[in-house]
Amino acid sequence: MSLDYAALHPYLDASQHERYLGVIRDKGLSAYLRGLELKDWWENCNFNWGSALHGNAGLAALLLRDKDPELSKRVLVEVRSRLQTVIDYFYEGGAYPEGVMYQATMFAHLTDFVMPLHRLTGDDLGLSSNQAFQDVITSWQYLVGGDRRPYNFSNVNAASNEWGCTHVFWWANRLQRPDWTGFQEEVLRDWRDTHGCFFDVESFWHREAFQKSEPPQTDGLHHFKGIDWLTWKGPKTWLGFRAGFNGDNHNNLDLGHFILGHGKERFLVDPGYGAWETWRHNAVTIRNHGQTDCSTAPILETKPQPDGFSLVCDLSACFPYALEGYQRHLQLIDDAHLLVVDDIQGRRATRNSARWHLQTRFPWHREKNGNLVIEGSSGCLTVWFLSDIGYFDAKDWVFEGPITTLSWTQSYDRIRSIHPMLLTFGKPEVSHRWINDQIEITLNDKVWRYAEKKLSNGPLTSIGT
After folding, report:
1. Structural domains of the chain in order of their starting residue, each with its CATH number
2. Which pairing describes strands 354-360 and 284-286: parallel, antiparallel, or unpaired?
3. β partners of residue 54
4. Nearest to 445 by CA among 465, 421, 426
5. What are the distances in angstroms from CA 378 to CA 135, 184, 236, 265?
6. Cα 282 to Cα 244, 254, 353, 366, 406, distances in angstroms
């Protein structure tokens, strides 16, 4: 309503001015202050509702600075204090716990307040010098797959265009970041999409005429170290990996989950907004249970490689009562071959009853040798099972369109499971063998070995040709 008033200001008569300001004061800010007195749940909310409620209250208070300066000052003191909680929620290194859609919502409401505050007072809440805030803006560029859709960790639908944010144009001009401008020009939100709060028409308000713009450069490995997410962009293969913490607002029980694509096709997907259970992700369940809420899974190690990368993620805390330890290893050998090894140890010599899950929206079939083939329109993803496979199941369901969950176990239940699978685009020559408890994989004449015997030890290692 404050934005409406600002836009209509030249066209209102005196009585209409009084009515607008009266409603903003007596209904809007009165309810806001009453909510603070009652210590309502949003009082010190650090996620998108925090910027929406406190930012908009601040906007209203700025409108009333001449009409009711005492009330305006009182509200602005509260707003500045409460918005600091939102600002402190930004991770250095970028990305946002609620996902890219709510990142846009949070950012836009915050900017709606900061823009007039800065115009009137010169104060931008310290955001121009806040590196974490700037990292969050930059991270948008990396959180997009080769299909130009977002890595939709947390509550986001991959098909959504509710993650473009024209407010970035104002910050890009202010902080001289033409790469921010270039990216937002690519993801403007269609004004006909009525699901969200902010649209491409607002670029007329926030974007300078002929604002400097350049395409962002996002190739290679990018680790958002604060939040502990990771993305990779290669010549054709692209991947997003979700580690960190699963207890923030709009989070899912999906640590260790990854999204995988090739060219313009997304072969392994995240189902989207509201699919919170572990089995609905590219992840592992233990003893028919998903991950523990509010658990952590840190990335212990990342290593760039000439044609890819390796990482080790410790998921032990996701199953604190059932497992002694669980590490997921990813080794992107090159642009067409991804090796995934899960090393799972049951607690107190108890069988772990691990079950693996993959999600796809493409047709699929199993070959005679047991391999799983997911069929895109311009190529296939083959999943090579490099250990024994027992029970296998495919569950078709509908969630933002048709989706299939592919699930399996090993042939017999184990206390310790070492489960390698090789995901390939193309038709490589692959063989493997087990030497005691170690797996050795030959891929196009190069040999890879999961050589460590201790659960805490490091990544997959190449042992030459």
Report:
1. 2-168 (no CATH), 220-462 (2.70.98.70)
2. antiparallel
3. none
4. 465
5. 35, 29, 12, 8
6. 16, 8, 17, 18, 9
Helices and strands in the chain, H and E counts: 10, 23
CB neighbours (10 Å) of residue 245?
16
What string of DSSP letters covers 390-444? --EEEEEEESSSEEEEEEE--SS--SEEEEEEEEEES---EEEEEETTEEEEEET
Where on the phi/psi map is residue 247: left (φ > 0), alpha (ψ -120 to 50), or beta? alpha
Residues 269 and 359: beta-carbon distance below 8 Å: yes
Q: How confident is the prediction along the chain (465 residues), in pLDDT tens digits per residue?
A: 887 888 888 898 999 989 989 999 999 999 999 999 999 999 999 999 999 999 999 999 999 999 999 999 999 999 999 999 999 999 999 999 999 999 999 999 999 999 999 999 999 999 999 999 999 999 999 999 999 999 999 998 898 877 788 899 999 999 999 999 999 998 877 666 655 566 666 666 788 889 999 999 999 999 999 999 999 999 999 999 999 999 999 999 999 999 999 999 999 999 999 999 999 999 999 999 999 999 999 999 999 988 899 999 999 999 999 999 999 999 999 999 999 999 999 998 899 999 999 999 999 999 999 999 999 999 999 999 998 999 999 999 999 999 999 999 999 999 999 899 999 998 888 888 888 767 788 888 888 776 554 433 334 444 333
Distance CA 445, CA 163 (A): 44
**Residue 273 and residue 286 in contact, taking contact as beta carbons nearer than 8 Å:** no
Torsion angles phi and psi, residue 314, rounded to 5: -95, 110
What distance in Å separates the CA atoms of residue 281 and residue 165, rounded to the nearest whole number? 27
Within 8 A by CB and 6+ apart from 396, the residues are: 402, 403, 404
- 451 in Cβ contact with 441 (< 8 Å): no
Q: How far is CA 298 from the centre of its chain?
A: 15
| 246 DSSP β-pair partners | none
* Tokens of residue 97, six digits: 């716990």
Reference 242, options 96, 345, 107, 138; nearest CA is 96
Q: Which helix (H) or strand (E) holds 86?
A: helix 69-87
* Contact (CB, 8 A) for 313 and 298: yes
* C-alpha separations of 21 from 4, 30, 339 in Å: 11, 12, 62
CA distance 281 to 267: 13
- Residue whose token pair is 């210590």: 39
Cβ atoms of 381 and 425 closer than 8 Å: yes
Rounded Cα gap, residues 38 and 33, in angstroms: 9
